[in-house]
Amino acid sequence: MARAFFRLQKFLRRTQFLLFFLTAAYLMAGSLLLLQRTRLVIQQGSRGTSANQALPVPGEMTGVGMADPRTLQNPRLLVGMDAPQEPALDQRHSPRWLVSRNSELRQLRRRWFHRFISDQEPVQTAGFKGMKHTAEHRGTYMGCFTDDSRERTLKGAVFYDLRKMTVAHCQEACAERAYTYAGLAYGAECYCGNTLPTTASKPEECNSECKGEKGAVCGGVNRLSVYRVEELWAGAKRRRNVIYRGCFRAPENLTDAFPVSLIQPNLTVEMCSEFCSKKEFPLAVIWGQECYCGYPTRRFSLHDGAEGLHCRGTHNSSSAAEGKYCLVYQTPVQDTRCTDRKFLTTKSKVFVALSSFPGAGNTWARHLIEHATGYYTGSYYFDGALYNKGFKGEKDHWRSRRTICVKTHESGKTEIEMFDSAILLIRNPYKSLMAEFNRKYAGHLGYATDRNWKSKEWPDFVNSYSSWWASHVLDWLKYGKRLLIVHYEDLKQSLIPKLKEMVEFLNVTVTEDRLLCVENNRDGNFKRSGAKLKDFEPFTQEMKNLINRYILTVDEALRGRNFTGLPREYVPR
Asked: Where is the WSC domain (predicted)?
């Protein structure tokens, strides 16, 4: 009896110790999680530092522009009045106060840029029976079809929304671009076209729930839920307008240059563009009473435009200007020759960064690189808005080496030396500051309100971020192992030559036609529509003086490393 009691007592002691250990472990894990969440909240909720926390700048300058760099060589001019005095370093790169990144600024850029977005995707409904095809739309459901990415039938336009895709959203997008059919796949991908897929599948194989509409079917894995878009359904504004590309010299043999043609008496622009849209071509070319449809190619690249005078009468008479010129229009059809993208099949041996200051066009550059190379780009961060619009590399770990390059806004020795090489994208700081301020308050496609611009946030933003713009470039010049400097303005003005340089730097071979396709889709989905004109100048004279000094510092550092200096349009302002 005593022995049994002793065993029971021993067992209870062990159980008590085990429960105590599990309780302590639970409390420790909860404490660590609470501390981590508190740190993230503090980072997200903190506002920008005041002006006296920004990097110190030189004193008042007597001139503006790419002036005598000797103004930067006086150590007394390189230290702000409120900053502690420091001896000057090697002047080939920059003042010491600008090269060395202090801890306050590092925390600042992380607080202002990092946006931790929780992307809670809807849980897929188990089974096919719980889903429906009768959502709030007026299209006719045509059935479930096989989707072959190599021989895709619905290839007129492609859209992604990995969080909010609905059947109605896809139909509206296709209807606005004058397509007949809308197909959905993987619950988040939308494809448009004018030809119905030929291979039908079993209805139950379209079993992916729409990301933005519970209970609705949006295709499946390699399966398309296809709808016929109604011609005139309420709420859809048909975007059948075309864009005039200009007057161009006609190829010697138009039939060989363009795969589809139409001869029509009394031909109009609307007739030709409608015909080419139905045939799913992005270009409509009018030569007299003849209409040709096709793509930009090496034989017809749209690079050598002619004066509009040469095309007078071209539309009404094929003998105008001896028939050497033609009118070119852009149809609503998307050029899909370069829209296919994938992850690298093998890990990249060279770890490449696509580095820029926020607001310098990094997203646009990623769009160009992805469509030119056919490979996804990665990101040091995670931006749910970009992921939902098709940048699938956003969710891939930034060190996976499955992407062609990795977006980063980081600077500092440790962050830079992780990469083997980098494309350093530089933009006019005035434009970069305004673009990032717009993104901060209105997202990738919106504009900050006048109230935002006139608030105290804007001066604090300029004081903090203008110094970051300069230090970002200087750090990459100092610590970067292999750099390709690309100026945003040069890329915008000479897209094909600069994009060629970037693609060659990434060690990828692409065809000329693919680059022309990229040029035809150059804006992507992240271009702010139009320029919002404000009735006031956002930069005060004090701000201009501050920014201009940083411009001079960066220009001198670039030239000191035998790179081309900043474009002259950066200053004066």
From this structure: 138-230, 241-338
